[in-house]
Design a protein that fits this description.
The longest helix has 41 residues. α4 runs antiparallel to α5 and α5 crosses α8. The protein is of the alpha/beta class and 245 residues long. It has a single domain, classed as P-loop containing nucleotide triphosphate hydrolases (Rossmann fold), CATH 3.40.50.300.
């Protein structure tokens, strides 16, 4: 029996985990939800340190510097570059390990809904390079590594992109109250907006079948909203109708 890999993509707080688990419930267990395993990142507080470092650098960009400020600016920039590469490297390796587990599940005939795939790493790494959190040299190194290790890895049968406007994302971040994300909800913080600018071109050029869900129009936390998502999956991927009967 064929198995299917459905990857749920989207910006921070778009609702990826919520939809992933909802698809498992709706399928009666024919699909299992697979949430990304980033225990090392959480255990060592990498995410909070990353957001703090890049936000501090963003605040200093474009400011006038005198002789005394220059040393502090360089210190802040180097801190952003350190965490920019560190967080991306750690996430990439963690998601690479996840692929090994996914491969076994799919090989055994188990269909999977995945919360964020390794392919989305390309968005976050490009954003970090665009805004100088990752140097050009490290960005080229990342691209070479990605191409090298991704041969013959499981690819999604469908990517569901959860599209959300920035105001909605910031409201959700405030609502879920995770301390490491507090910087992102600040009115002047553009991190989420910068990612949003990259997501739509990425999904349309990703080379995989995709489905775009406007999370302001379709509330998949409701039965009606979830059914709209299921109908989209069935239309996009032949054979998936059996998962929802």
């Amino acid at each position: 029996m064929d198995s299917f890999l459905i990857s749920v993509a989207g910006n921070i707080a778009a609702g990826k985990s919520t939809l992933t688990k909802a698809l498992e419930r709706r399928s009666g267990g024919k699909i299992i939800s697979f949430l990304e395993q980033v225990d090392y990142v959480k255990k060592h507080g990498y995410l909070g340190k990353y957001y703090k470092a890049v936000s501090a650098y963003d605040r200093l960009k474009g400011t006038k510097l005198n002789g005394e400020d220059a040393g502090e600016f360089l210190k802040v920039k180097l801190e952003a570059e350190y965490w920019g590469y560190k967080i991306q490297e750690t996430y990439f390796l963690s998601r690479l390990l996840d692929l090994g587990v996914l491969h076994e599940l799919l090989r055994e005939g188990q269909s999977v809904a995945q919360d964020r795939s390794i392919y989305e790493d390309q968005i976050f790494t490009k954003n970090s390079n665009n805004y100088e959190y990752i140097t050009d040299e490290d960005y080229r190194k990342y691209l070479d590594l990605f191409e090298l290790v991704m041969n013959n890895k499981p690819t999604p049968d469908l990517i569901i992109y959860l599209e959300s406007d920035v105001a909605a994302l910031k409201n959700r971040i405030v609502g879920r109250n995770r301390s490491e994300e507090s910087e992102l909800a600040a009115p002047e913080n553009t991190y989420l907006s910068n990612l949003n600018d990259l997501y739509r071109p990425w999904i349309m050029k990703c080379g995989h079948p995709y489905l775009i869900i406007d999370t302001e129009s379709i509330d998949f936390r409701t039965n009606d909203g979830l059914e709209q998502v299921v109908e989209g999956i069935v239309r996009a991927v032949p054979g998936t109708e059996r998962l929802f009967k």
